[in-house]
Amino acid sequence: QVQLVESGGGLVQAGGSLTLSCVASGSIFSINGINWYGQAPGKQREWVAAITRVGNTNYVDSVKGRFTISRDNAKNTVYLQMNNLKPEDTAVYYCHTFVRGSNYWGQGTQVTVSS
Fold it and tell me: What separation in angstroms does the CA of 63 have from each of 3, 22, 32, 85?
């Protein structure tokens, strides 16, 4: 079992920044990679960024150069630094991992970007 808890969302003006956190607990030794997904109102949940156990990263094209995913293994935490935010980044952001055949999701944190 793995538990994921996100925090750090909020309301920000376009061009602003936020840092989301995802704290993992439980069978964390089994976690290889962590993903961030975003779900905008009325849309499907979409993958945003990923980081592997050893720190390799990948991003959806729309956030490259603006978002940075990182991890602090000592704190069992993955971060998503979001810079130059745009109104289209408005979404509930979820962290996710896949362990031993099961998907694990956090409860989500709301990010709202005003124009």
Answer: 26, 18, 23, 9
